[in-house]
Amino acid sequence: MTVTDAESPHLGEITCGTLLQKLQEIWDEVGESDEQRDKMLLQIEQECLDVYKRKVEQAAKSRAELLQTLSDANAELSSLTTSLGEKTFANGIPDKSSGTIKEQLAAIAPALEQLWQQKEERVRAFSDVQSQIQKISGEIAGGLSSNELPLPPIVDESDLSLKKLDSFHSQLQELQKEKSDRLQKVLEFVSTVHDLCAVLTLDFLTTVTQVHPSLDEETAVQAKSISNDTLSMLSKTVLTLEDDKKQRLRKLQELATQLVDLWNLMDTPDEERDLFNHVTCNISSSVDDVTSPGALARDLINQAEVEVDRLDQLKASRMKEIAFKKQSELEEIYARAHVEINPESARERIMSLIDAGNVEHTELLADMDSQIAKAREEAVSRKDVLDRVEKWMSACEEESWLEDYNRDHNRYSSSRGAHLNLKRAEKARILVSKIPTMVDTLVAKIRAWEEEHSMSFAYDGVPLLAMLDEYGMLRQEREDEKRRLREQKKVQEQPHVEQDSAFSTRPSTAARPVSAKKPVGTRANNGGANRRLSLNANQNGSRSVAKEGGRRESLNKPAAPANYVAISKEEAAASSPVSGAADQVSASP
């Protein structure tokens, strides 16, 4: 070393050799001993070894740190790839297991930097989607309004895979759909509340903000509350309003019905009724049909109540008139049903009750309404029998007319209208032939009615079965009389009597019936008498002895007088074939 360092003194560089040479020069001048010099040189060598050792230790420490850094980088790289789930990217990482440590670190650094950036982006994506999930969940739970920001979510960085992110996105979509559905439901509830408040004339804003302040019209749609509590309270509010609507409509319909009844009772003019058309227009409407604003306002119901009270007071002052009107309706129903009643006593009873004040007016009218309802039921039950009675009586009238027509000498004349009478006679003969069947059917109907109602069927106070029985006996008597006359004609008939003298023959006064001959077209017979008796029964109210005698006289009177003219008719049958054929038809029942 000494030689080497000494060979280049001119270099002017400070090296170990130059320094050692300089040290020897100093020792020579000082006169340092060799022993001392060796000792100093050993010390210098030891110090050099210490320096080298420190440097080696530092180098080894640096290498260990680099190895640890490389190991940490590999571990972090593995952790990031596992967390991000980027297998394709992990496959693209260079496998630098050879070369220096720094070369290996240099190969890993770009991939690690890229994964870190990707992790940061992924964390932001997770944080964003979890924040939205947390916000919507809070809105649904009701712990967070749409204007409030939730606390930042804690992202689990151990799993930042796209699969996990997709699951969060799916969850977010489901929550967004649920939020949309809830918002739509909230808006529907709010719209229903608005319509109900309009019909009931309630303050919509006050009603809806009592449920939640965000439901007013100024708040944006997306900012409205969609929590379970809000939906539940909105549902309860709608049910409450609908129940109130039903009650008000029921009350209004009751008042409208009372108004109509009172108007009908007192014959209120249309001008006064038109003032309450807004009340009566919904008298038969369903709850869903009433949608007009203010249709069920409280003031409207109060107005109707005031009018009903006023009409009730007016009705009390006109009670007699109203009661007699109902009594007239009852009498009319019984008159049409041919049921005999005593209207005078009923009217006297009404007068006494009203004058004495022993009964409430409403109870009296309700009792009369009940009587009218029962009378209508009874009239309906009697209708089938009465219709058949009318047909029977009409047939009896036609039978009487036919008898009169057969007694007319000029029925086949060419006078004006004779052909019409001839057509009517043909129809009358057909109808008369059906009378026995009519009577049998009518009797069966009457007996069925009497068995069902356990009472006798009376027609204007006369038992109808007795009337029919008497009619049957009278009809049989007429048939017997006709048969007797035919036999008598055969005895009196002379073979060479001329036709003119035969027609001029008249029976004795004793054989002629009491009733005089009626002109063709009259309709007086037992059926017509019964109709007149029915009218008299309704007018007089009770059956007197004289009227009973009139009925029996009417019932005992034959449908037509004994046809003595028929004796001469049949004698003329040989000379007039058409007349003989017609007379034979007329002789049949």
SSE layout and pairings?
Elements: H1 2-6, H2 16-30, H3 34-84, H4 87-91, H5 101-141, H6 162-200, H7 204-209, H8 228-266, H9 270-274, H10 277-280, H11 298-317, H12 319-336, H13 343-356, H14 361-407, H15 418-433, H16 435-453, E1 458-459, E2 462-463, H17 464-492, H18 499-504, H19 526-540, H20 545-556, H21 565-571, H22 577-587
Would you give an account of this structure?
The protein is mainly α and 589 residues long. The protein has four domains: 18-117, no CATH class; 189-305, no CATH class; 319-366, no CATH class; 374-587, no CATH class. It is 72% helix and 1% strand. The model is unreliable at 1-11 and 499-589 (pLDDT under 50).
Distance between the termini: 178 Å
Tally of structural domains: 4
Number of distinct helices: 22
Envelope shape: rod-shaped
Query: SSE order in H/E notation?
Result: HHHHHHHHHHHHHHHHEEHHHHHH
Question: How confident overall, as mean pLDDT?
Answer: 77
